[in-house]
Write a structure and sequence with these properties.
With 349 residues, this protein is of the alpha/beta class. 47% of the residues lie in helices and 11% in strands. It is built from 16 helices and 9 strands.
Length: 349
């Protein structure tokens, strides 16, 4: 009998959620989302549970994202399973965001896509020297969802937009700079930290201070002024033009990276962050993201991106349209338009 994909149990006064699909770096499945949601709902009003701790088994990473192959297979058909996945994943993201009890996420290793959706709404977010954060969705024709529209535009100096468009991978010091992580603890000390939290959940904040290590200097800092200037443009095309005009090694590197991304989803992400930055609350942002997800999962660029990057691995996607300027406003308007009232996203009560 195989182990469950998520281990949910109460230890002392702590609700423990351990992602347990290590062979896939804990990429989220519809079943995993249901298991986590059920546990959080059961503990929400349980006085025996004072704090929730989310971690992972194995050493490869916290969570590499979602079940992309399933999404693409569904998208190539009627899209119903993909929409079910997004609907419930976004409900879980919102549930964690609104959860009244303290939540601790241990982001030891790869934390991307769906893993960001689980960790970022937590009160305490612990990075280690093995942490690698990214929102790499534009490289497969998707978009930085799971709340990216809420968190990314609220980062300083347009760094969130840079992360969204380029899919840049950053380490622990940058995660602390951008408040993606609240604390840095060396991976060798994580088991001791978790045991201490389980023993004394009311001391979690003090324990994190006691275990705090030095993440080093954030590498983004040396390019922060460039990002602030070059990504403060009114469109994707204007960002590309600004990078071309800058004519620096770093700017040329960003241009080369952007040239590999889906032009359609570069423009989707740009608009998503514009709208998400103005959203009145997290649920409003998630309603928007569900509209996008329900549609792009069936569009050419997502199916082609998954083929090129994940299935056949030739890394030569043929995007359609092939350039940002060829992606017209009517296409974007259709992707962002409200869904029929009986198909819209809604948060859990």
């Amino acid at each position: 009998m195989s182990e469950p994909e998520v281990l949910c149990r109460i230890e002392g006064r702590v609700g423990r959620i351990t992602l347990n699909r290590p062979q896939a770096i804990h990429a989220l499945t519809t079943n995993m989302i249901a298991l986590i949601t059920d546990a959080l709902l059961a503990w929400r009003d349980d006085p025996a549970v004072e704090l929730v701790l989310i971690d992972h088994s194995g050493e490869r990473g916290f969570c590499a994202g979602g079940d992309i192959r399933m999404l693409a297979e569904s998208g190539a058909g009627d899209g119903s399973k993909a929409r079910e996945f997004f609907f419930n994943e976004y409900r879980l993201n919102d549930l964690i965001f609104r959860y009244a009890k303290p939540r601790v996420a241990i982001m030891d290793g790869i934390t991307m896509g769906g893993g960001v959706g689980l960790s970022r709404p937590c009160r305490f977010r612990v990075a280690t020297e093995r942490t690698t954060f990214a929102m790499p969705e534009t490289g497969i024709g998707l978009f930085p969802d799971v709340g990216g529209g809420w968190y990314l535009p609220r980062m300083p100096d347009h760094i969130g937009l840079w992360l969204a468009l380029t899919g840049a991978r950053i380490k622990a010091a940058d995660c602390e700079l951008l408040q993606i992580a609240t604390d840095y603890v060396e991976s060798a000390r994580i088991p001791e930290l978790k045991a201490a939290i389980v023993a004394n959940p009311e001391r979690t904040e003090a324990l994190l201070t006691e275990f705090e290590g030095d993440a080093g200097r954030p590498t983004i800092a040396q390019h922060q002024d460039e990002i602030a200037r070059l990504f403060a443009q009114p469109s994707v095309e204007a960002i590309v033009a600004a990078l071309e005009a800058a004519d620096t090694d770093w700017a040329r590197e960003q241009l080369a990276i952007l040239a590999t991304k889906s032009p359609q989803t570069l423009k989707v992400a740009f608009r998503q962050l514009q709208l998400g930055g103005k959203a009145r609350d997290f649920a409003e942002n998630m309603t928007m993201e569900y509209r996008i997800g329900a549609r792009v999962v069936q569009r050419h660029d997502f199916l082609e991106g998954v083929r090129a990057v994940i299935v056949e691995k030739d890394n030569a996607p043929k995007w359609n349209p092939p350039t940002p300027s060829a992606v017209d406003d009517a296409t974007l308007d259709a992707i962002f338009a409200p869904l029929p009232s009986d198909q819209e996203w809604s948060p859990l009560p």
